[in-house]
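Notes from the 1:1 (GR / supervisor)

We went over the backlog. Supervisor wanted to see one worked example end to end before approving the batch request, so GR pasted a single chain during the call. The sequence is below; no edits were made to it. Supervisor asked that the structure be written out right there so they could see what the output format looks like.
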Amino acid sequence: MQTVHMSMAHSPTVRLRRLARELRKMREQVGLSPEAAAARLGWSRSKVSRVETGRTRASSSDVAQICELFGADSSVRAALIQLAKEVRQRGWWTAYADVFTGSYVGFEDEASLIRQWEVQLVPGLLQTEDYARTVIGAGLPQPHDADDVHRRVMARMARRMLLSRPNAPELRAVLDEAVLRRPIGGTQTMHAQLESLLVSALRPNVTIRVLPYDAGAHAGLEGAFTVLSFAEDIDPDVAYVEGTAGEVYVEGSEQVERYKVAFARIGDVALQPEESMGLITEIKEHFS
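Structure output shown during the call:
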């Protein structure tokens, strides 16, 4: 029987994905199909599927029942039941459940490495309050409620704390030059935002690079994306793409690898960090 890896530092979202994967592996190791497992558990086929894909949070009793059916030893049973309990713990972002409706913030909170390619906007983790307020207000139906905008801005500012905490992830951001030149919020807002980028880049865990206009055609033309990697090998990378139609999470290893290769190819033609800081400084002066 497999060893179950756990850590109290993991976010509920990552724990849920891990629990789902461990339960699926356990079923596969004993050679039962989802239909056969459902029949022996007295569950529907859809419940087995939801539990094994993380769409449903398995309760402690569900996990105990699965462990009994699959013959898990006592240590594995105890670890999985504990993991099921931890899945139900609340992450800091649940205080903003009305703002963060997807799983992204939970994955981001657990990531050890964030690779981000942006073509339109400064990444959320690097936005200033005024810049974020302009972006959020522009994206909401008009007229929008000022209190709603303020709450969303405060939620985004809370996310920024991720980069300054003791176990902060490494952020490698590549920005299209257009991100720096698009006058969002007016001259003062852009000047302050670009200055903030320069300050953020001084952090040892933050690398900001710029893809200049003269790079021509490149591997990121299809749009922005993020690849999240985690400290433990048992937690596979996740690629994330956000658009008007909603969020897309890519977890298949081959598909995620394509995004990682694309990010590397974008990096091949982007300015080096020092050159990028020079360009950001130059553009910042245009907003003086």
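Supervisor's comment: The first strand starts at residue 113 and ends at 118.
Batch request approved.
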